[in-house]
Specification:
The chain is 26% helix and 37% strand. It is α+β, with helices and mostly antiparallel strands. It has 2 domains: 297 residues, no CATH class; 94 residues, no CATH class. The strands form 4 sheets. Strands 15, 16, 17, 18, 19, 20, 21 and 22 form an 8-stranded antiparallel sheet that branches. Strands 1-2-7-3-4-11-12 form a 7-stranded mixed sheet, with helices on one face. A 6-stranded mixed sheet has the order 6-5-24-23-27-14. It is globular and about 65 Å long. The two termini are 35 Å apart. 60% of the residues are buried.
Length: 404
């Protein structure tokens, strides 16, 4: 029996020019689950008198990706669709594992353009620039944002941001997240229409007659003494304070024996124990993703510069939920007291690990801030949010995109 649902449209100004909706499915058949979620979101848009202009799909990695893509493509009926696999799905009804969630935009007040690039073909920076060119096909309105969904296992994701920034400049913000595979750290999927990919980045440029707000916050704090990155190669940290980086990291955290020899145990352990790059005004969080037990190194999802200082980071339920509130408040500040049409959220899997059952409270908190507007998103392996400067890749962070 189907367990799908779709949220009603939300148009606080009484118009149908900008409408969002969500559709979900828990069906076990990948193709049918994809179809049901897309069709549910589309039906809600059309019930409000708006035609869909974009579908953004998030699906559990336990589904066969090619079958999901088949369902997405057939249900979208030519409407642009992008998406990715997840480490958990988020919808207005709450957090979930093992299903499909679709966020849909509709109405004449939105215009979109979509693009895809394979990072294995061009390199990460070139792929970021390539997908960002879709902005050029838009007749830009009051607000514009570039949404990016990427394969975080393909290398330094800050390079995606650099490439996109070089293409669109400082005026257009970047937002999004990296696909997940349930913490297996093996293979993620990206969806573009009726096709599935790995090692790709997909993008949607969205321009709106209304405001667009972005909020970013993480809730982690430094713990212990700072350490110097005495040797690193991009995303691979080789030595800390001239000692093997993996040993320093594990010893400082008093890691149990299994974590020191088993890759899966290490990933589970490290998921809630990030490091932070110490900057003048902030700490940039880095997800410690995998360990090499032979070379005694560990790998992050973004560059850890040699010569920089890092610290172990810690957080708890209160600090994580405080960051949730901060991100929502920042995103909604663009609305000057007005209501949002809908929210997309990109929440790091590590925050989910810290909260445990508290993830329900977190999603409820986001939905309260949305005031009835549809909410959809996923638990990710890294988050994009560039609102100022040229950097904009985050780890262990919540990013909220509010559409007006």
């Amino acid at each position: 029996m189907s367990e799908s649902s779709a949220q009603s449209e939300w148009a606080p100004d009484g118009s149908h020019s900008r409408v969002t909706a969500t559709g979900t499915s828990q069906l076990s058949d990948a193709t049918e689950a994809a179809r049901e979620a897309v069709q549910g979101a589309a039906a809600q848009l059309r019930a409000s008198g708006a035609e869909p202009v974009l579908f953004v799909a998030y699906a559990a990695s336990t589904y066969e990706s090619t079958l999901l893509a088949e369902g997405f493509g057939s249900a979208a009926q030519g409407v642009p669709l992008i998406g990715c696999s997840t480490a958990g799905e988020i919808a207005t009804a709450g957090p979930n594992d093992g299903g499909v969630v679709v966020f849909a935009l509709g109405g004449e007040g939105f215009e979109v353009a979509v693009s895809i690039a394979k990072m294995n073909d061009t390199g990460l920076r070139a792929a970021g620039a390539e997908v960002a060119r879709c902005v050029e096909s838009l007749e830009r309105r009051s607000s514009t944002v570039l949404l990016l969904l990427s394969d975080g296992l393909s290398g330094d994701q800050q390079e995606i941001v650099r490439g996109a920034y070089e293409q669109v400049g400082a005026e257009i913000p970047l937002v999004g997240g990296c696909a997940g595979d349930g913490l297996r750290m093996e293979r993620t999927s990206q969806f573009f229409g009726s096709e599935s990919f790995t090692g790709a980045v997909v993008a949607a440029a969205i321009t709106s007659d209304g405001p667009i707000g972005i909020g970013v916050s993480h809730g982690w704090r430094a713990a212990g003494e700072p350490m110097t990155v005495t040797k690193s190669s991009g995303v691979v940290v080789e030595t800390l304070d001239d000692e093997p980086a993996l040993d320093v990291y594990l010893d400082a955290l008093q890691a149990p024996a299994a974590v020191r020899i088993d890759a899966a145990a290490f990933t589970d352990f490290a998921a809630t124990r990030p490091i932070g790059l110490i900057r003048r005004h902030r700490n940039e969080i880095r997800f410690v993703a995998t360990a090499d037990f032979e070379t005694r190194t560990f790998t992050c999802f973004a560059e850890v510069p040699q010569g920089g200082s890092v610290s172990l980071m810690e957080g708890d339920a209160d600090s994580v939920l405080g960051a949730t509130q901060a991100a929502c408040t920042a995103a909604l500040s663009e609305f000057n007291g007005g209501a949002t049409q809908g929210m997309m959220v990109f929440d790091c899997i590590a925050r989910k690990g810290v909260l445990g059952e508290g993830i329900k409270a977190e999603i409820n908190q986001i939905c309260v801030e949305a005031e009835g507007a549809p909410v959809a998103g996923f638990y990710s392996y890294g988050e994009f949010a560039r609102t100022s400067g040229s950097s904009g890749f985050h780890n262990q962070t919540l990013v909220v995109l509010a559409l007006g």
